[in-house]
Amino acid sequence: MSRIAACCALAASVLLGAASAQGSDEELSQGTSLEQAAPAAAALPKLGPLEKSAAMKSRARKPGADLYYFTAEEAAEAAHRFAFVAEAARTKGYTFDADVPADIQKQMREDLAFIGGIQGGQASGLHQQIFGAVDGGAYTKFFESRVKSIGMNDCGSANAVACVIPLMGPSKMWLTQNYIKFSHPQVARTMVVFHEARHTEVSHGCWSHATCPDPFQDAEGNDMKSIWTGAPLAGEPACDKTPFGSYGSSMIMLKNIQKFCRSCTDKVKMDAGIYADDQLNRVIEPKAKKQIQEDLYR
Amino acid sequence: MKVVLIAGALALLAVAFWSGRTDREARAKLKTLEDILRSKNDNDPRLDSDFASLSPAAKRLLRQRYGESAPERRNERGTIVYLLGRSASSREDWEFLRAVASEPPCLSLADCSKKAPQAEGALGQEVTLAYPSLVALKQAERALPAEGARLVIEAAKRSKTPIVRRTAARVGAAAAGSVERAPAGPR
């Protein structure tokens, strides 16, 4: 599978127009219920030739990217092709493809059972809008109303753990062997799974990633880059402009688990905080960042 | 003379008995840890209940286990650091955490000594790659204002791993305040 086809985050959200998931004040202020949103999928506009051309260019400039991604064009096309997702969203549960190894299925089930067993009760305002309360049942509903099947794919990268490929079915999540091969904390695997689940929402352009600013520097003034490749993130589609995107929603989930989970071990809560704090760096729009900080860091 | 010899023998027996018991308890903790690591379940309640206090013998075994685990086993290593950091009190404890915080960067999850063959990373990998050091740092943050904890944070500030340096700088800056602050992040 080509790297371009196997992508997990939209590129160049500026190209999305009406299909964009980023930046609209209305979307910034509202939560997302897939049950409500799915019927809108069929109404998404097709991209014109100029937009298609620009989308192709955006694909081509990906070398060295920290994340692989799908294009705006692919997300919009998926929205049309898979408009029946509204129907699928009403069915509960997910299935594994026959080729998903038993040990990966087992790990995925155990991770989802862990999330499904969370008890918290309280939640921040943003979490309430996206997921409801910090509660295993709410997380299970969120996941199972979006992800209908799970298959195996290389997701175009030796390092990937999971991805969504809209043109191969926006309600399908793909896992790689790294899901069990690499030694991630359980919270990190969960974060990836819920990040990808957010990308299934065709009605929001699959919550496209935003392009990271250029320059993109940390507090010390160093370029934000991948430490294993040295590839800078500046100018790459590896950021979010809204709290409701894939980075934003998954970090809000983790930070709430850190703060409110009553059934979690201390390690899980500590891990949730570590990964959430890191993911906040990918939310680049000052207004969105401020919204998250006021919601979770006061 | 006879009495002295008998008393000495009894004392030796007591020490051997006590040492054996401590050793058994330490090994039992290690066995529990192995069970948890094998299950990949970080929400196993035994992490909270069974490791609340660690004897010096148990700590030695855990440190030994850390040294024996492959560097790529990031969560296993981080879990051991978490447990040792939670009850850090002795010079050896803080020295261990300081060494972890100063570890060289792990370059890829498949092989810490080599950069990944492809140019792509994936979500959260920077954190996982630095995970043991970040856990050492977090535990040090919790133990402030202990002197040993301060030294761990200072060591982390000199780390060759950017995310460890960044986090150490934030922890150091926030140490004076009581309000949780959001990471400074990119500007």
Structure description:
The complex is a heterodimer of chains A (298) and B (187). Chain A is mainly alpha-helical and 298 residues long. In chain A, 41% of the residues lie in helices and 4% in strands. Chain A has 13 helices and 4 strands. Chain A has helices spanning 25-29, 34-37, 49-60, 72-81, 85-88, 102-116, 125-130, 136-144, 178-181, 186-198, 246-260, 266-280, 286-296; strands at residues 95-96, 149-152, 162-163, 172-175. Chain A has a 4-stranded mixed beta sheet with strand order 1-2-4-3, with helices on one face. In chain A, helix 6 packs across helix 8 (136-144) and helix 10 crosses helix 12 (266-280). Mean pLDDT of chain A is 76; it is low at 1-21 and 23-68. With 187 residues, chain B is mostly helical. Chain B has a domain at 56-109 and 124-176. Chains A and B meet through helix 6, helix 10, helix 12 and helix 13 of A and helix 4, helix 6, helix 7 and helix 9 of B.
SSE layout:
The complex is a heterodimer of chains A (298) and B (187).
Chain A: H1 25-29, H2 34-37, H3 49-60, H4 72-81, H5 85-88, E1 95-96, H6 102-116, H7 125-130, H8 136-144, E2 149-152, E3 162-163, E4 172-175, H9 178-181, H10 186-198, H11 246-260, H12 266-280, H13 286-296
Parallel strand pairs in A: 1-2, 2-4
Antiparallel strand pairs in A: 3-4
Chain B: H1 2-39, H2 46-49, H3 56-68, H4 74-86, H5 91-101, H6 125-129, H7 131-143, H8 147-157, H9 162-174
Helix pairs in contact in B: 1-3, 3-4, 4-7, 5-7, 5-8, 7-8, 7-9, 8-9
